[in-house]
Design a protein that fits this description.
- The chain folds into two domains: 195 residues, Rossmann fold, CATH 3.40.50.2000; 180 residues, Glycogen Phosphorylase B (Rossmann fold).
- The chain has an eight-stranded mixed beta sheet with strand order 4-5-2-1-7-8-9-10, sandwiched between helices.
- 42% of the residues lie in helices and 19% in strands.
- The longest helix has 22 residues.
- The protein is globular, with a radius of gyration of 22 Å.
- α11 packs across α14.
- By secondary structure, it is α/β, with parallel strands linked by helices.
């Protein structure tokens, strides 16, 4: 079976860890012929090239700059992605007849490339729905349905609907995603929608007490406090104002220590808080060596997830999986439309509160200072991951349509 995978994620081997690379390894291990288009942005100054790994091939397609650039360049680059991918397929994979094309959102602008492969090869199309755009931009006030920006919304909504229309199957991250999709797109047949969650190939993580002490000393993190860690994007989707409120409310809390590692459009806002308030029980780091971050994350006690309270779309951050892999309980503060909190609490591996309720956040925070509770929740987290969110599980969901 020849499988084409389209993504915006920049990688050069499927041996890396991640929700897409872990899934692709399952295809490779099962003997499928895998072809991948993984672009690289212009700023890296690397020309388009094909990496041949034998049982899988990766086309490193040069595209315009999308991350860490101004809105005009980002907009132009986003609009030209579709033609770039289409050209890449024609130039490099013209002699391959694909049976299946898999693609994820973001972006929603790959519709013509997918449509071309479907028509040329009579291939099936599987959408991994990781993001519901443009509604997420509307929720955060980045885009409007009316006025000058209304044209942009209408255009992207049209592209979104076209993408759904050409998809033979749509894999959603959770039941809330399924419900939202059907409610807001009644033209989609419920028969093509299913839950195909974010997933990984779990690795065994040894809790090395010596390394734990060393990494904490290296970054001046107390050894006698419950460490709550957040790692990842620090942008508008995370609702950084609420995170700041929570940090401010816990400035005098001697039982906890917060570690925030990441970058993004709201990093400066968070850094201003640290510079002005100088909290003694919190650490903000823009970036760490990968090895240091992994040791630090695995040496922490609780993983934090934040989502802006304004979201009407049900996000389900993949960050959850790395916490679960490390047998770590989770404290999630989100909007009321995602069901990630429901999953966490039903699985008994953490707590949830709404991301506008500091009092509830503090209450859950204090509960998670109990070592025995954390240990049991950590065991539950790892078990739930292995039972529900493995890459093999997602692979079987997709391949079930081809048996």
């Amino acid at each position: 079976m020849n499988v084409l995978f389209l993504t915006l994620l920049d990688f050069s081997t499927v041996e890396e860890s991640g929700i897409y690379t872990d899934l692709l390894r399952e295809f490779v291990k099962d003997g499928q012929n895998v072809y991948i288009i993984s672009p690289t942005e212009k700023r890296k100054q690397k020309p388009t090239r094909l990496i041949d790994k034998g049982n899988y091939k990766i086309l490193k397609l040069q595209i315009g700059n999308i991350q860490k650039t101004n809105i005009i360049e980002k907009g132009i680059s986003t609009l030209t992605i579709e033609s770039n991918f289409l050209r890449g397929i024609k130039n490099y994979f013209s002699d391959v007849k694909f049976d299946l094309v898999i693609y994820s959102t973001p972006p929603i602008t790959l519709q013509k490339a997918v449509e071309y492969v479907k028509m040329r090869d009579n291939a099936k199309a599987y959408l991994l729905l990781k993001d519901i755009f443009p509604q997420n931009a509307v929720d955060l006030g980045i885009m409007k349905k009316t006025g000058m920006l209304g044209f942009l919304y209408s255009y992207f909504r049209y592209k979104e609907k076209k993408l759904y229309k050409i998809s033979d199957y749509i894999g959603c991250m959770s039941q809330a995603n399924v419900d939202f999709l059907l409610k807001n797109n009644p033209e989609i047949s419920p028969n093509i929608i299913e839950i195909c969650p974010n997933s990984i190939e779990p690795i065994n993580i040894k809790k090395d007490e010596k390394l734990k002490v060393e990494i904490k000393k290296k970054y001046n993190i107390p050894l006698d406090k419950a460490v709550f860690i957040y790692g990842g994007n620090i942008g508008k989707p995370q609702g950084i104002n609420f995170l700041i409120e929570c940090l401010a409310a816990n400035k005098a809390n001697d039982n906890v220590y917060f570690v925030i590692v990441g970058s993004g459009t709201e990093f400066t806002k968070l850094k201003n808080f640290f510079d002005n308030e100088k909290p003694t029980n919190a650490l903000l780091i823009s970036q760490l060596p990968k090895e240091d971050y992994e040791v630090l994350a695995n040496s922490s006690d609780v993983g934090l997830i934040f989502l802006d309270k304004r979201f009407t779309i049900p996000n389900f951050p993949s960050r959850l999986l790395s916490y679960m892999q490390a047998s770590m309980p989770v404290l999630a503060a989100t909007d009321i439309n995602t069901d990630i909190g429901e999953v966490i609490e039903e699985g008994q591996f953490g707590y949830w509160c709404e991301s506008n309720d500091v009092e509830q956040f503090n209450k859950k925070l204090q509960q998670l200072c109990d070592i025995k509770l954390r240990e049991q929740m950590g065991v539950n987290a790892r078990r739930y991951l292995e039972d529900n969110y493995t890459a093999m599980h997602s692979y079987e969901i997709i391949m079930n349509h081809f048996k």
